[in-house]
């Protein structure tokens, strides 16, 4: 979901010369004048990672000794904002990052503040223990994720989860009647969510609004920014056949007492096998698993649909033209040399902004841009469903 | 009427200086420039600051002592450029790496010479 900005803001992004404004707030205090170097911030959908920038502030005059003198200030909220100053209406800023101040170092006349987002909270709390494990049986995966965040991560839904993305994500499982089960005997909440996300091919990240987004990338948006040579600084293409999957195994219905999976399904893309040979992948987890063969087959089919050909991945560097984008958004790219046209959409799976220089690096993944996916129920009655 | 130059904490205690002909006052931008593959420019100006550079000769020892003490204590100063019709005021600090007025103006031992670098803060 792109940031909501005015048309004037968009004009500033497109202008050949502009005067951006950067703000660092710790609590309600503006520490921007003290920043000696603004950080790089990277978001990725490939793994549930905390985004924890560190920023160096000048302290030669001792004005920032306040954290040393008042240690209770170390846990204050913090955010990084970026935007422009309108000549009449003042600052229009977007919040690039939200979290808390967690550590402060004083070194060589500088004050280095280490900020952390709420993923850290999820990494500190555990779900269940070996004597009293937490179990979920036959739930839709989104309900399990919701419980992990709220009940065990102690983060309430309203202020910590992007509701519009969450309900769209939950609807994906409801529509296909995908159910799962889980058992947690002491894993951290962050690891539990990460493994559930991997098993359900879900992207999880914390956006600049400080909300946790859950998303299963499906239909591409029609309202995309197009990158041409006028917007691209650098562009490279990565074709990696290690990502190829044409035979996907999915294990389900795990029995903890016997360490055994009652369900094993697989889906094969025959045309891909004929072209590349067999490339197998296994999805198997003992904390989250699919409760029935249909749900497992749903996932197996999705993976072979996405990865039956060598997926194309772009690394694109641009200017602040890409500022209003976030990971999960789709963009169009035009490159006449490779015959890439604006007919195709590419999903942003990594977003890296160098706030100091105003440079944005995007990773665009063909495999995350699914043009609709339909479960082929005829396959369920065949020999591909075992046990 | 010729232009006068004064440096001080306030206008009341300012020292009158007579810069040599190498007087310069450029502005420096803090910015980032990018060129796209298609040749389009993206220039981001994060800020700017004023620099004022000039040499001095035959400065009385009392004035030299005051200027050197401001440098030594990193005092926040005002630099006045009065052209008769208008006065520019710049908030500056003396950013020389060494004592600005440390050499005698030959053949005198009570008049000093040197160079001053002022930058806005």
Q: What layout of secondary structure does this protein have?
A:
The complex is a heterodimer of chains A (387) and B (121).
Chain A (H helix, E strand, L loop, with lengths): L6 H8 L2 E2 L2 E6 L2 E2 L4 E3 L2 E5 L9 E5 L7 H4 L7 E10 L3 E18 L2 E7 L2 H6 L1 E2 L6 E6 L1 H12 L4 H4 L2 H13 L4 E5 L2 E2 H11 L3 E4 L5 E4 L9 E3 L4 E8 L7 E9 L4 E9 L1 H7 L3 E4 L4 E3 L2 H15 L4 E7 L11 E4 L11 E10 L4 E7 L19 E2 L1
Parallel strand pairs in A: 16-23, 18-20
Antiparallel strand pairs in A: 2-3, 2-7, 4-6, 5-24, 6-9, 7-8, 8-9, 10-13, 11-12, 12-21, 14-15, 17-22, 18-19, 19-26, 22-25, 23-24, 24-25
Helix pairs in contact in A: 4-7
Chain B lengths: L3 E5 L6 E3 L9 E9 L5 E20 H12 L4 E6 L4 E8 L8 E2 L6 E10 L1
Report the end-to-end length of chain A measured between terminal Cα atoms.
42 Å
What Rg of chain A do the Cα atoms give? 23 Å
**H/E order of the elements of chain B?**
EEEEHEEEE
Shape of chain B: elongated
Number of strands of chain B: 8
Helix share of residues of chain B? under 10%
Oligomeric state of shown chains = heterodimer
- In the predicted model, the low-confidence regions of chain A spanning at least 5 consecutive residues are 370-387
Helix content of chain A: 10-25%
* Mean pLDDT level of chain A: 89
Residue runs with pLDDT of under 50 for 5 or more positions of chain B: none
Task: Tell me the β content of chain B.
Answer: over 45%
C-alpha geometry of chain A = globular
In short:
The complex is a heterodimer of chains A (387) and B (121). Chain A has 387 residues and is of the alpha+beta class. Chain A is 21% helix and 38% strand.
């Amino acid at each position: 979901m792109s940031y909501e900005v005015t048309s004037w803001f968009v004009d500033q992004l497109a202008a050949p010369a502009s005067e951006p404004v950067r703000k660092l707030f710790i609590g309600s205090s503006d520490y921007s004048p003290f920043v000696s170097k603004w950080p790089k911030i990277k978001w990725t959908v490939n793994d549930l990672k905390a985004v924890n920038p560190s920023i160096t502030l000048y302290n030669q005059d001792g004005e920032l000794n306040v954290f040393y003198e008042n240690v209770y200030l170390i846990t204050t909220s913090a955010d990084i904002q970026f935007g422009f100053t309108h000549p009449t209406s003042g600052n229009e800023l977007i919040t690039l990052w939200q979290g808390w101040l967690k550590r402060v170092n004083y070194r060589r006349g500088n004050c280095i503040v280490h900020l952390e987002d709420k993923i850290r909270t999820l990494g500190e709390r555990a779900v269940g223990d070996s004597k009293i494990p937490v179990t979920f049986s036959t739930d839709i995966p989104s309900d399990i994720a919701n419980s992990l965040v709220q009940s065990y991560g102690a983060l309430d839904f309203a202020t910590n989860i992007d509701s519009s993305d969450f309900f769209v994500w939950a609807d994906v499982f409801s529509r296909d009647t995908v159910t799962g089960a889980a058992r947690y005997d002491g894993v951290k909440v962050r690891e539990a969510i990460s493994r559930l996300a991997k098993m359900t091919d879900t992207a999880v990240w914390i956006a600049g609004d400080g909300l946790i987004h859950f998303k299963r990338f499906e239909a591409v948006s029609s309202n995309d920014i197009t990158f041409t040579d006028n917007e691209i600084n650098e562009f490279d293409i990565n074709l990696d056949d290690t990502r190829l999957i044409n035979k996907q195994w999915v294990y389900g219905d795990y029995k903890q007492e016997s360490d055994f999976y009652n369900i094993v399904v697989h889906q094969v893309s025959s045309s891909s096998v004929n072209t590349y040979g067999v490339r197998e992948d296994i999805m198997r987890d003992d904390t989250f698993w699919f409760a029935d063969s249909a749900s497992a087959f749903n996932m197996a089919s999705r993976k072979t649909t996405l990865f039956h050909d060598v997926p194309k991945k772009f690394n694109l560097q641009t200017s602040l033209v890409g500022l209003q984008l976030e990971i999960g958004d789709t963009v169009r790219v035009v490159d006449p040399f490779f015959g890439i046209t604006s007919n195709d959409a590419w999903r942003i799976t990594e977003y890296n902004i160098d706030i100091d220089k105003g440079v944005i690096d995007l990773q665009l993944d063909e495999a995350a841009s699914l043009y609709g996916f339909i479960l082929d129920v005829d396959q369920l009655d065949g020999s591909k469903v075992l046990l | 009427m010729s232009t006068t130059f004064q440096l001080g904490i306030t206008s009341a205690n300012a020292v009158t200086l007579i810069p040599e002909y190498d007087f310069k006052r450029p502005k420096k931008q803090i910015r980032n420039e990018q060129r796209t593959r298609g040749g389009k420019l993206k220039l981001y100006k994060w800020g700017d600051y004023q620099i004022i550079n000039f040499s001095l000769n035959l400065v009385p020892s009392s004035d030299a002592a005051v200027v050197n003490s401001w440098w030594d204590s990193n005092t926040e100063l005002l630099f006045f450029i009065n052209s008769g019709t208008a006065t520019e005021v710049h908030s500056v600090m003396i950013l020389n790496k060494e004592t600005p007025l440390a050499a005698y103006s030959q053949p005198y031992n009570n008049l000093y010479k040197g160079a001053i670098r002022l930058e806005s803060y």
